[in-house]
Amino acid sequence: MAAAVDESQKWVLMVTAQTPTNIAVIKYWGKRDEKLILPVNDSISVTLDPGHLCTTTTVSVSPAFTHDRMWLNGQEISLAGGRFQTCLREIRSRACDVHDKEKGIKINKKDWDGLHVHIASFNNFPTAAGLASSAAGFACLVFALGKLMNVKEDQSQLSAIARQGSGSACRSLYGGFVKWIMGKDDKGTDSLAVQLADEKHWDELVIIIAVVSSRQKETSSTTGMRDTVETSLLLQHRAKEVVPKRILKMEEAIRNRDFTSFAQLTCTDSNQFHAVCLDTCPPIFYMNDTSHRIISLVEKWNCSEGTPQVAYTFDAGPNAVMIARDRKTATLLLQKLLYTFPPNSDADLNSFVLGDKSILKDAGINAPEDVATLPPPPEIKGQQFKGDVSYFICTRPGRGPVVLSDETHLLNPETGLPK
Ligand SMILES: Nc1ncnc2c1ncn2[C@@H]1O[C@H](COP(=O)(O)OP(=O)(O)OP(=O)(O)O)[C@@H](O)[C@H]1O
Ligand SMILES: C[C@@](O)(CCOP(=O)(O)OP(=O)(O)O)CC(=O)O
């Protein structure tokens, strides 16, 4: 017979999940409700392959745990923040009966209120460096807790909970191409993510991220967008007049795999988002000279080809996310980027190009010396900026969250403490 919940018992139940990060091609910037995290416009993103960028989170429950605890990248962090508390509360309130027959554990719906959780999470990329760790992180937390607590809500409803951890997190509940519908309801019940197409729909796309700086940024997205909402008239125009039409066009471009339109919309929207940041008082500068050089290189190349080969987009930081129409274009792009932004002399190629390294081979680069043999890209007049890019990540559109096997647990299955 399964045992009822009793504090003297030592059992620990756990679930580990992996969740991707995402990059917005139509940006979310500005809230109409700060607490519920309700945006002023819809947004659309591409989910990035979790094989290259992801969060892994283990959540566990035991009658022996005395309070909720969390470790992020090995360090214990406080769960006192409102966003963590909201996610925990919202998920707990939807918890259902759990019966683990193998372990002989039975948790009744009503028991969850008295039980505490231990959480360990690991980002396989820099945290708070403009690579959307909060998006993958909160999506993974909510998804994993949902599994542990046998929450019956579907992915969209879970996305509305993850949204309250970090707005962009709601889009990481799905793979492929995702839309965050801003919703109309004051309580936010209809502000959730839906999948537009899965990752197989447009699998020629190749994504190259130039990590320009992995230092923590000066103005967080949360603070930056608050200032923008308070001061920018351009944001009001963007949210009311520009984005609604752009969303329809972007949905059509994704549906038809129309790269020309996809690239034009992506670049224009990124540029408008940064224009809105400049229109904020005091102005916010997320891009730097390296970001501007990358824009210039891509714009000139696209112009000389007559049709866009590559789309670029920048979030709240200087890192460039470039989306190439196919693998051949991505190979050419990587050659141009490596020529323009070669690694520092002491860097090894293996840590300079991460993710899908097979593109390096296609580009004919097997050793650091090969970078010097690349042809100078005409777009940037052969200028070189050694060391200005910390590293590149080659990736592609990827799948949504998954539950991982028991061997991947980040917490000790006996004690519920980090391994
Ligand atoms: N794996 C994780 N699990 C839970 N929360 C996380 C995780 N990783 C990051 N976070 C939360 O997100 C915060 C970092 O968010 P922040 O917006 O500053 O950076 P970012 O998401 O990496 O960059 P950006 O939003 O510009 O893309 C962390 O301080 C933490 O609160
Ligand atoms: C520029 C962006 O990346 C902004 C993301 O902002 P966050 O989701 O990090 O902000 P909060 O909701 O305050 O946590 C654009 C986007 O992802 O759509």
TrEMBL record:
<keyword id="KW-0456">Lyase</keyword>
<dbReference type="GO" id="GO:0016126">
    <property type="term" value="P:sterol biosynthetic process"/>
</dbReference>
<dbReference type="InterPro" id="IPR041431">
    <property type="entry name" value="Mvd1_C"/>
</dbReference>
<keyword id="KW-0753">Steroid metabolism</keyword>
<dbReference type="GO" id="GO:0005829">
    <property type="term" value="C:cytosol"/>
</dbReference>
<keyword id="KW-0067">ATP-binding</keyword>
<feature type="domain" description="Mvd1 C-terminal">
    <location>
        <begin position="207"/>
        <end position="403"/>
    </location>
</feature>
<dbReference type="Pfam" id="PF22700">
    <property type="entry name" value="MVD-like_N"/>
</dbReference>
<keyword id="KW-0752">Steroid biosynthesis</keyword>
<comment type="function">
    <text>Performs the first committed step in the biosynthesis of isoprene-containing compounds such as sterols and terpenoids.</text>
</comment>
<dbReference type="InterPro" id="IPR036554">
    <property type="entry name" value="GHMP_kinase_C_sf"/>
</dbReference>
<comment type="similarity">
    <text>Belongs to the diphosphomevalonate decarboxylase family.</text>
</comment>
<dbReference type="Pfam" id="PF18376">
    <property type="entry name" value="MDD_C"/>
</dbReference>
<keyword id="KW-0444">Lipid biosynthesis</keyword>
<dbReference type="InterPro" id="IPR020568">
    <property type="entry name" value="Ribosomal_Su5_D2-typ_SF"/>
</dbReference>
<feature type="domain" description="Diphosphomevalonate decarboxylase-like N-terminal">
    <location>
        <begin position="20"/>
        <end position="193"/>
    </location>
</feature>
<dbReference type="InterPro" id="IPR014721">
    <property type="entry name" value="Ribsml_uS5_D2-typ_fold_subgr"/>
</dbReference>
<keyword id="KW-1207">Sterol metabolism</keyword>
<keyword id="KW-0443">Lipid metabolism</keyword>
<dbReference type="InterPro" id="IPR005935">
    <property type="entry name" value="Mev_decarb"/>
</dbReference>
<dbReference type="InterPro" id="IPR053859">
    <property type="entry name" value="MVD-like_N"/>
</dbReference>
<keyword id="KW-0756">Sterol biosynthesis</keyword>
<keyword id="KW-0576">Peroxisome</keyword>
<dbReference type="GO" id="GO:0005777">
    <property type="term" value="C:peroxisome"/>
</dbReference>
<dbReference type="InterPro" id="IPR029765">
    <property type="entry name" value="Mev_diP_decarb"/>
</dbReference>
<dbReference type="GO" id="GO:0019287">
    <property type="term" value="P:isopentenyl diphosphate biosynthetic process, mevalonate pathway"/>
</dbReference>
<dbReference type="GO" id="GO:0004163">
    <property type="term" value="F:diphosphomevalonate decarboxylase activity"/>
</dbReference>
<dbReference type="GO" id="GO:0005524">
    <property type="term" value="F:ATP binding"/>
</dbReference>
<keyword id="KW-0547">Nucleotide-binding</keyword>
<protein>
    <recommendedName>
        <fullName>Diphosphomevalonate decarboxylase</fullName>
        <ecNumber>4.1.1.33</ecNumber>
    </recommendedName>
</protein>
